[in-house]
Write a structure and sequence with these properties.
Helices cover 22% and strands 46% of the residues. The chain is of the alpha+beta class and 332 residues long. β8 and β9 form a beta hairpin.
Length: 332
């Protein structure tokens, strides 16, 4: 059980996320199935991952993160301001063939914004990276990259800017060998055994507080296991838990908004999709500064039976400029 919780928590912490996600299909109250906690865990434990080991998968993600700090209105002697922004809309298609040369990994970046600004009485700077319609492709063992975007840095009002318009390059040599292929394939092959766990009375007692957060829906051959955590549940947990609390008690005062939803979709008990979505707002003020952390509608989906995207043809990839030092070529 520790292994499956670790996997799910890792996914959740990596991408943290709202029930109003574009990725998630609607759920009907009439499709809800009443199960005990043991039955819910049994359904999850019986999940068949055979297709995960053999098929391709597609990962889609997008979100908007912002963290800021600025002086309170009544603080006149401070000019400190900090802003960190991170917005993205991306997807990744991974298909392992029978060998390295038949494998494809296609990472598409529809939008990226990374912005960092800081202003104090003696310092003012900004670093801003933007990208659209860019991709990284592993095909036939080679890596190809297309970049559209810009980079801007400004220190004390002295800006430096650079733009990349349809910059295309590829590795000169094969970089994905049979050795890397075998390592990646073994990770897929070991996934199933790492997700199964023993359902014991002690386990049920330890996690009984999550029972009301988990609901199960059934539509035809599709089961959806849903974990929904709200601000109210987190505050209740902090208020009632006195031992081994992972968060400081005052966290409940900082938390202004939170929804976190994880769904696992099973088609005839085979893992079909995983969804994650969340909104988050934290506000904290001390004697001088107001601090905000906002996560708007972060969305994440893994599709284990995806429709393959349109991959650039070999003839178009032949036009990409070969580079010896491929990584440094991406940033020059």
């Amino acid at each position: 059980m520790k292994k499956i919780l670790l996997v799910l928590m890792s996914i959740g912490l990596f991408i943290l996320v709202a029930c109003q996600s574009n990725f998630m299909p609607p759920l009907k109250k009439s499709d809800q199935v009443e199960l005990t906690l043991a039955q819910k865990l049994t359904l999850l434990n019986e999940m068949n991952l055979s297709d995960v080991k053999s098929n391709a998968l597609m990962i889609s993600a997008k979100g908007d993160f912002k963290a800021s700090a600025e002086p309170l209105p009544n603080v006149s002697n401070s000019s400190n301001k900090v802003l960190i922004q991170f917005e993205f809309d991306a997807s990744a298609y991974i298909s392992l063939g029978n060998e390295a040369s038949e494998s494809i990994m296609y990472f598409n970046l529809n939008k990226l914004l990374v912005n960092n600004e800081q202003k104090t009485s003696y310092l003012e700077y900004q670093n801003r990276i933007e990208a659209t319609k860019s991709f990284l492709l592993l095909k036939n063992g080679y890596v190809y990259a297309q970049l559209n975007g810009s980079y801007k840095t400004s220190n004390q009002g002295n800006p430096v800017e650079e733009s990349f318009n349809n910059k295309q390059m590829r590795s000169k040599e094969v970089v994905f060998t049979q050795n890397e292929y075998e390592i990646l394939k073994s990770m897929f092959d070991s996934l199933e055994e790492n997700l199964h766990f023993d359902i014991s009375d002690s386990l049920l007692e330890q996690i009984k507080y999550v029972d009301k957060m988990i609901t199960v829906y059934k539509t035809g051959d599709i089961h959806t296991i849903r974990l929904l955590i709200t601000k109210e549940q987190v505050i209740e947990f902090i208020t009632t838990t006195t031992e081994n609390l992972p968060l400081p008690p005052e966290f409940k005062d900082y938390l202004k908004k939170l929804t976190f939803e994880l769904r696992i979709e099973l088609n005839q008990k085979k893992l079909s999709k995983i969804y994650l979505a969340s909104d988050l707002l934290l506000e904290y003020s001390d004697s001088e500064m107001k601090n905000d952390v906002t996560l708007n509608g972060l969305q994440f989906m893994v599709d284990f039976n995806p429709v393959a995207p349109t991959i650039p043809s070999d003839s178009s990839l032949d036009k990409f400029e070969p580079r010896d030092n491929f990584i440094s070529g991406l940033i020059r």
